[in-house]
Amino acid sequence: MLNSCDLVGKVKQLPEITTTSKGVPVAHMLVEADRNFRNEDGTLSTDIFKVTLWKGIAEEAIDICKPGSLVAIRGRLKSDTYDANGRTYYNCEVIAEKVSYLDQRV
Description:
The protein is mostly beta strands. It has one domain (5-101): CATH 2.40.50.140. Helices cover 9% and strands 66% of the residues. It contains 1 helix and 5 strands, in the order E-E-E-H-E-E. Strand 1 and strand 2 form a beta hairpin. The longest helix has 10 residues, at 55-64. The model has no long low-confidence stretch (mean pLDDT 92).
């Protein structure tokens, strides 16, 4: 089985970079993407995705991204579960493997 996803959207929250205990750069950002259908009032709803960026991808994103920047992300989904108050909760995030900056001029 293959775990792969593509996401195109706008940067909602700028990446914040930290380093792991082993010195590896990691950043997290939020990306907002329109759904491909309209809701009851005729507007497009959006989804917000947490995206994790590692190493050089994280450092590059810090230098290039601005709020509202259009990005295309290729990566994989990572899911986690946790229990609280007798219920199981599920969390899903995108682990970026490649980021294309669609606002950049070539």
